Amino acid sequence: MSTQQKSHQDENKLIQARKEKAQQFLKQGIPIYPNKFRKKHDIKPILEQYQTLSHEELEELDRVFIVAGRIMALRSFGKITFFHIQDHSGKIQVFAQKNILGTEKYNIFKKFDVGDIVGVKGPLFKTKTGELTIKAEDIELVTKSLRPLPEKYHGLKDVELRYRQRYVDLIVNPKVKEIFIKRSKIVRFIRSFLDERGFLEVETPMMQPIPGGATARPFITHHNALDMQLYLRIAPELYLKRLLVGGFERVYEINRNFRNEGISTQHNPEFTMLEFYMAYADFTILMELTEELFSSLAKAICGSMKIPYGEHEIDLTPPWEKLSFYESLEKIGNLSPAEYQDYEKAKALVKKLGEKVVEGEKLGKIQAKLFDLLVEPKLIQPHFIYHYPTEISPLSRRNEENPDITDRFELFISGREMANAFSELNDPFDQRQRFLEQVKEKEAGDEEAHFMDEDYIRALEYGMPPAGGEGIGIDRLVMLLTNSPSIREVILFPLLRPTG
RNA sequence: GGGCCGUUAACUCAGUAGGUAGAGUAUCUGCCUUUUAAGCAGAGAGUCGCAGGUUCGAAUCCUGCACGGCCCA
């Protein structure tokens, strides 16, 4: 269906009427999309500064305010009208009176609709009910709105419409706006947290010839001029570590990753990730840094280290619980070493729990599935799970005492993975072996297995200082700090199938 | 991929043991100079998601499809 047909189809009488009204304005010489009005004041500061003043004090103030915003509610009484206008900062009531504006202006104003953007000039006063209000001496149309807004009391509830037309959601649901303001504050907090500690923010490729740094299916694209296949990145990790080789000792990047996988309340194909790398540090130092980051973030954003999430209260006060991967299988998963160390028994158990086991899958991977099924959902309060099997950690440094496990941890809160960190593997011999293992798995049919990256090996051969590195899912963090049940509530435009 | 649920006016929602499609908000008209989910009186507004089927008759029952939500994988 063409755009034109489509736009014709979703016309309705209300839109028709507004279009006709707009034509009437034009005929009267009233521009419907002028760009001449210059507002001087934001609404929120006006409310904050003058809310407490008395009637008399406001009268003595003798100040004219020039504000602009969208008409949100209109209560008309014939010769007077009350309405609210909403700008980016807040909402204030405006009082329009025929005697003050004059008949001509008042009659034009009376034709304005809820949703129109208007500019208002006038002094402040307080109504009988004590609401701080602007007494309009002038009102002009700044932008005509052609579509009716959702119902004023219930707002826009239809989840699908809210995501497809987020602009409407943002106009009518103040809580949605708050989430995205918080999201911005969270990201800004993280940046200054890292900047203060000497980290350098960098940007590395989103389009990569070899996708690396995570086990995930990539999106594939093609560059015409170079006639080459490119992948949207699944992680920035290998590029950031090349920068450690290059001599930057503390780097971070906050940006989008893309994974060609399913969509759920916790997964969007593109999502935002923080990754940071710290030379001359290891995973234990990162645990402390993570505790510090999360707890100070909660305090700054939510005002407390104890925050509500769903039916739980999450306590982010450090220090957090720490359990090794195998300890967690035993203590939280209630498994015995005999159950999770025996390949056949572990495999049978995974199948019994309803998860598939791919032929030839290694024990580490099966243990990870047991963890996902039996442990992860129970980790409501913050838990560091550390010492993951080497088989499932191809970029992590081996533990000095036991080469079958790595100096790696993941952080879980509210039953979800929030961070993944490790002492980085900087031994090019070992890294090559690990890549070769991955390539074998890829050849055996595991689409998520890592690619061999010869240039990355070459970089390690120049020498990468020992380092700790960590990735934190920003969307999930925002979900946690805004008490949002779905990742779509914290992504402005989540991916949806297009309609018709 | 599987299961369950949803889709009715611009928005929020009712609805029928199968029998002419409803309310509130919004819109339009009229009255109204301190309202704030303003009020009062009146009017207009719907391919009941789409396509088939059963039936004298389907928004309602059946099948398929689309989109979405939740849960599982």
What do you see in this structure?
The chain is α+β, with helices and mostly antiparallel strands and 500 residues long. The chain is built from 18 helices and 20 strands. An eight-stranded mixed beta sheet has the order 8-12-13-20-19-18-17-16, with helices on both faces. It has a seven-stranded mixed beta sheet with strand order 5-6-3-2-1-4-7. The chain has a three-stranded antiparallel beta sheet with strand order 9-11-10, with no helix packed on it. Strand 2 and strand 3 form a beta hairpin. Helix 9 packs across helix 18 and helix 14 crosses helix 15. Mean pLDDT is 94; it is low at 1-10. It binds one RNA strand of 73 nucleotides through helix 2, strand 1, strand 2, strand 3 and helix 7.
What are the main properties of this structure?
eight-stranded mixed sheet; disordered N terminus; alpha+beta; 18 helices; seven-stranded mixed sheet; RNA-binding
Number of strands: 20
Strand percentage, roughly?
15-25%
End-to-end separation:
8 Å
Which regions contain 5 or more consecutive residues with pLDDT less than 50? Answer: 1-10
Mean pLDDT, to the nearest integer, reads 94
Radius of gyration, Cα only, in angstroms? 29 Å
| Count of helical stretches | 18
Placed side by side, the strands forming the largest sheet appear as 8-12-13-20-19-18-17-16
**Sheet with most strands:** 8 strands, mixed
- Classify the secondary structure makeup into a structural class: alpha+beta
Task: State the helicity in percent bands.
Answer: 25-40%
